[in-house]
């Protein structure tokens, strides 16, 4: 008796699975038919926006007049803190002292 119930449940599950697969194939087929039968339209990008009236760029305008005692002095011109190797050979000195060496632990002993 047990094997008959088991066999019946297996057939029922197999029938349900095959019905679900058939329904999925039918929906897929109907979707493909509808896509082919309809008007073929391609997705289009939006039209480019109209350009705004031309505004003079920052390069075309003269720089703002510097005020004495302003927030950022403009003279003398800022220089890098560490000159490149060629400038050091020519005699330029770094504006900042060298960075302190990092603290290191004792060396790892070999086994």
Would you kindly provide a written description of the structure presented here, covering whatever features stand out?
This protein has two helices and no strands. The mean pLDDT is 76. The protein has helices spanning 2-37, 85-89. The protein is elongated. The protein has 111 residues and is mainly α.
Sum up the structure in keywords.
111 residues, mainly alpha, 2 helices, 37% helix, 0% strand
Mean pLDDT: 76
Helices and strands, in order, run as HH
How many helix segments? 2
Q: What global shape is seen?
A: elongated
Q: How far is it from the N-terminal to the C-terminal residue, by CA?
A: 72 Å
Briefly, what is this?
With 111 residues, the chain is mainly alpha-helical. Helix content is 37%, strand content 0%.
Present the secondary structure layout:
Elements: H1 2-37, H2 85-89
């Amino acid at each position: 008796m047990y094997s008959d119930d088991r066999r019946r449940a297996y057939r029922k599950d197999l029938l349900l699975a095959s019905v679900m697969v058939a329904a999925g194939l039918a929906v897929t087929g109907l979707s493909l038919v509808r896509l082919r039968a309809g008007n073929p339209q391609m997705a289009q990008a939006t039209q480019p926006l109209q350009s705004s009236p031309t505004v003079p760029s920052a390069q075309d305008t003269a720089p703002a007049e510097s005020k004495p005692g302003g927030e950022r002095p403009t003279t003398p011109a800022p220089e890098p803190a560490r000159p490149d190797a060629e400038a050091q050979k020519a005699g330029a000195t770094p504006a900042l002292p060298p960075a302190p060496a990092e603290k290191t632990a004792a060396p790892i002993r070999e086994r």
